[in-house]
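stage 2 :: seqdesign
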């Protein structure tokens, strides 16, 4: 099995990529849907329709760029969950249908495992075992990764995900969607020490997170200040999230006695977070490249390679909008 096609449609990015175990990433295309900005969040029905509209053309363009034909594809990996059911079904039905037409296996990939393994696409790649901080729009979790497929959930958010907290704060500040990059941009000209922000749950033992109190704090603060203070609010908020995440990461390494931390998911693109982690855990942190932090097909094709033994030709189209990562088992190849 050589050329693996990856298809990602779990949320508002349509991603397709071709991964080859020796050549690495052969080609990779991502389309980020723009229609959701007006609604301040992802509208599932619009997302599904946009995937339907974009995916066939992107698959054709991907093969053109790779100078390949469909017959060169040896397996099709697609995101089967977690994510929006209708959006997932677009990638799943396209992937399973393509695999059936080509008489190749279709591989159902767990979206968060795609993120989790994405730093392994980089050079240098971290060795197992490591702790993974997965921070995206829908998830915030710390996972002990003993080996490929052996995942132990150490902690997760009790309410909002870190990316969601960024998105909601962006909305409060009158910024666009997705909010993370917008808040980060505004924070560049702000003073992160001017206002006090809580560091939720850092004084309690354990590795769970909670971001809803921070959001409420920010909302109340915004009511009391002028618009010219918004950069300071953005900077203070960003710093609070970055420090809270970094403190928990250090604790997780200590508790597991592991030496390496991997961060992945959309929020791992945040520079302030990276700086905090570097300060607290110098030389121990591995990231995907910025482009690979947010959703993409490359991480799905790459995870598909790890799961290559699990491909099927049964033609079944099944998605799992909810799919706990610690329910994944490894297979020996
Ligand atoms: O992994 P991802 O693309 O999609 C999900 O699986 O959810 O993550 C998207 C999330 C959004 O909430 C977005 O605001 C956040 O990642 N994000 C960031 C940054 N870039 C994206 N948050 C903070 N700083 C960033 N630079
Ligand atoms: Zn994601």
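stage 2 :: out
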């Amino acid at each position: 099995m050589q050329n693996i096609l990856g298809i990602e449609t779990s949320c508002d990015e349509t991603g397709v990529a071709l991964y080859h175990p020796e050549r690495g990433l052969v080609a990779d295309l991502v389309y980020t849907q723009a229609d959701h900005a007006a609604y301040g969040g992802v509208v599932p029905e619009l997302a599904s329709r946009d995937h339907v509209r974009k995916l066939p053309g992107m698959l054709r363009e991907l093969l053109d760029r790779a100078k390949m034909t469909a017959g060169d594809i040896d397996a099709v990996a697609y995101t089967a969950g977690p994510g929006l059911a209708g959006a997932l079904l677009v990638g799943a039905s396209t992937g399973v249908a393509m695999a059936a037409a080509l008489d190749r296996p279709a591989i159902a990939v767990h979206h968060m495992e795609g993120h989790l393994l994405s730093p392994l696409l980089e050079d240098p790649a971290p060795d197992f075992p490591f702790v993974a901080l997965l921070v995206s729009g829908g998830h915030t979790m710390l996972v002990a990764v003993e080996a490929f497929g052996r995942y132990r959930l150490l902690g997760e958010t009790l309410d909002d995900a870190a990316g969601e907290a960024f998105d909601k704060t962006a909305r409060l500040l009158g910024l666009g969607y997705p909010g993370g990059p917008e808040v980060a941009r505004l924070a560049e000209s702000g003073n992160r020490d001017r206002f006090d922000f809580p560091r939720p749950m850092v004084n309690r033992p354990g590795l769970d997170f909670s971001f809803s109190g921070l959001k409420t704090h920010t909302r109340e603060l915004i009511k009391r200040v002028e618009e010219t203070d918004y950069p300071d609010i953005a900077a203070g908020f960003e710093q609070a999230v970055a420090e809270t995440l970094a403190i928990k990461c250090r604790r997780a390494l200590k508790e597991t006695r592991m030496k390496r931390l991997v961060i992945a998911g959309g929020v791992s693109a945040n520079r302030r977070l990276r700086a905090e982690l570097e300060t607290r855990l110098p030389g121990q942190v591995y990231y995907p490249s910025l482009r690979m932090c947010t959703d993409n097909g490359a991480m799905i094709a790459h995870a598909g390679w790890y799961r290559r033994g699990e491909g099927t030709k049964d033609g079944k189209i099944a998605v799992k909008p909810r799919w706990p990562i610690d329910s994944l088992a490894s297979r020996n190849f």
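stage 3 :: structure notes
- Residues 11, 136-138, 163-164, 166-167, 178-181, 184, 265-267, 269-270, 294-295 surround KG4 (ligand 1) (CB under 6 Å).
- The chain has two domains: 4-116+293-327, 128-287.
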